[in-house]
Design brief:
By secondary structure, the protein is α+β, with helices and mostly antiparallel strands. The chain is built from 7 helices and 16 strands. It folds into 2 domains: 143 residues, 2,3-Dihydroxybiphenyl 1,2-Dioxygenase, domain 1 (Roll), CATH 3.10.180.10; 118 residues, Roll (2,3-Dihydroxybiphenyl 1,2-Dioxygenase, domain 1).
Length: 275
């Protein structure tokens, strides 16, 4: 499974773009989606994955997707995986008992006028990419959709390592992923600073997080439901990333060191770097 992209939602795209630009990570404006309501910016990594920043074109508009996340400045709200054959992948998942919707043709118009086209399949019964990822396959050349953003490699950021999904039950969410993808049982641990019991499927980019007590993660689940709550970024040198970005709260998840961006510097999102 390869992460195609992850999505950060907010009520003001320009504010999100400024936050990343202030860190030396200047997003590229990606243009207006075919729904005519949402537009996006992106940060492209050298491994082909990217972070999408999404908002409504006009303040207060109701977005057809992730409306609550955009209005509530949720930050992490969705994720997608790349499909080599979206029609056969859709059929396989449907045969495994996973609700599927698609494939659907989508597009957006870049600022230079070029039309970027792709197909999507939504999995599960919630918004796209809420727990299970949505599938994406390009119809136009992939380099039209994303290219590496200048400066990310120089600052040691090379891709997306993992999606952290807020769930109410580790057991129920584990069963869902194992049924959909045939994975073995996950490894588990507790991170008291993050306030969650964690489960990670080995050799995959998926980490489940269920709240311990009634902290921030419980409040997030109550407001936005089960959905991504954090993203982990790949770095070539974690110690350099800590110094460059002022990362904090270093910890170890499943044998890997990671450290967190100050949420105030990334428009409230929870993002971490891991080596």
């Amino acid at each position: 499974m390869k992460i195609d992209h992850v999505t950060l939602a907010g009520s003001d795209l320009h504010r999100m773009e400024r936050a990343f630009t202030d860190l030396g990570l200047k997003p590229e404006y990606g243009g207006l989606h075919s729904n005519g309501i949402t537009h996006m910016g992106l940060l492209g990594f050298e491994d082909g994955s990217y972070i999408e920043l999404i908002s409504t074109l006009q303040p207060g508009q109701r977005a057809p997707w992730w409306g609550n996340a955009i209005a509530g400045n949720a930050g992490p709200c969705a994720w997608a995986v790349l499909s080599g054959n979206i029609h056969s992948d859709t059929a396989r998942l449907a045969s495994a008992g996973v609700p599927v919707d698609g494939p659907h043709a989508m597009n957006r118009r870049r600022p230079d006028g070029r039309l970027v086209e792709w197909e999507l399949t939504y999995l599960g019964q919630h918004e796209p990419g809420a727990t299970l990822p949505f599938l994406i396959q390009d119809r136009s050349p992939r380099e039209w959709r994303v290219q590496p953003t200048p400066g990310l490699r120089e600052k040691g950021l090379t891709g997306l390592a993992a999606v952290v999904l807020a769930v109410r039950s580790i057991a129920a969410a584990s069963d869902l992923f194992r049924r959909a993808f045939g994975w073995p049982a996950p490894m588990t641990q507790v991170d008291r600073v993050f306030g969650a019991a964690l489960a990670h499927f080995p050799d995959t980019p998926v980490i489940l997080a269920a709240p311990q007590g009634t902290g921030w993660l419980t409040a997030r689940l109550d407001q936005f439901g089960e959905s991504p709550c954090a993203f982990l970024l790949k770095t070539t040198n974690l110690d350099e990333a800590i110094a460059t970005f002022g990362l904090m709260d270093e910890t170890i998840w499943f044998g890997r060191r990671l450290a967190w961006f100050d949420p105030r510097k990334v428009d409230g999102a929870r993002l971490a770097c891991t080596g």
